[in-house]
Amino acid sequence: MSALVDRAGRRYPLHEPRWCGDDGSPLLVAPLPGITRDDVDTTVRSQWRYAAALPAPVGRPVTLGEGSTPLLPFDLDGVAMLVKPEWANPTGSFKDRGTTVMVSTLQEQGIGEILEDSSGNGGSSVAAYAAAAGIRATILAPESTSPAKIQQSRVHGATVRLVPGSRQDTADEAVRRSASTFYASHNWHPFFLQGTKLLAYEIWEDLGFTAPDAIVLPCGAGSLVLGLHLGFGELLASGAVRRRPRLLVAQPRNCSPLVTAFGAGADTVAPGEWVPTVAEGTAIARPVRDREVLAAIRLSGGDMTAVAEADIGRATFELAGRGLYAEPTSAIVVPAAREFRRRGALRPGGSTVLVLTGSALKAADAVGRLLAQR
Question: Of 83, 216, 242, 247, which is most buried, counting CB atoms within 10 Å of its CB?
Answer without folding.
Answer: 216
